[in-house]
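Subject: sequence -> structure tokens, single chain

Hey, anyone have a minute? Need the predicted structure for the following. Not urgent.
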Amino acid sequence: MTQEGLASAAGLDRTYISQLERAHKSPTLSTLEKLAECLGVTPRGLLRTPMPDSPRVGSHYTVRQQPHIAVVRRSGSVSRAAGTVSTGRLMDAVDATHELVDDMHGAELDISTVLGLRNLSAFVGELFAAALARVCSDQLLPNPHQDGYPDLLLMDARGRKDWLRLADQLDEKAPFSPFASGGIEVKATCGAVPSPAVCRGRGIRRPDIGDSRIGCLTGYDWKAHHRETNNLIGLLWDFVDGRPRIAAMFYASDLVEVDWGEIVQPKRGGGRTTSVSIMAKSGLRKMYEGWLCVLAEGGYKEFLNARNRGALID
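Reply:
Had a minute. Here:
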């Protein structure tokens, strides 16, 4: 039985079933009875034989020893902590993101080829944001508008008050871009690799969709449509065994306007490109200093330390 099938039969959420399987949650007696009924066994039967530990995706990461990230809210030049999200929940969202990717591949849908590399980065960010919203459903709500800001709305006392006040305006974009109470923005990148000509000159093959990129990454950055982006979860992803995987996660709640480059306007006749700001070196440094997890193997830690001329990730 799939996680989705068991969740549907028991009236539970699939993410919760996943957390039970990975021993991140303990079921209540009533939940245990529901699961036993759906599986055709007794509650005692579920508990009789210890289940072997299921290695979580997080076991393959170097995870920073930091209990939580702080979400700040600005008032003029003053920033105050408005809430926190535990590092454990962030890692759960990483797991859930990979499970969603694997579910799609299990359905024989090669999302990487379907979307193409440029769209895939945005898609990985969207998947993680959706996963984090599910894991933190008591703290975060998805922005009701695809282009709203931020991606995840903080539901502290003020956030809930603002949400209720805007309940009859959910079809309007303006109140949710920006959402006055703030929240968390999520952005993903797969980094930059040399051009085909440069790769040929070096005698190497330029990585294609499905190929690991870490061996020839030249850099990475994140892009935004305005220079006020803060409370940012930045993801660096790569292909591992042919599938998109989050290679590293960073967070900064102290980004300011100068940490973003000048807005670049699309060229006349430049297709569907939009105005964009590329993160400046100062912003990249803040994100590096706020690293949260990095794949333990594959050279990602070494690349990130070397790229940022530091040794923070060990």
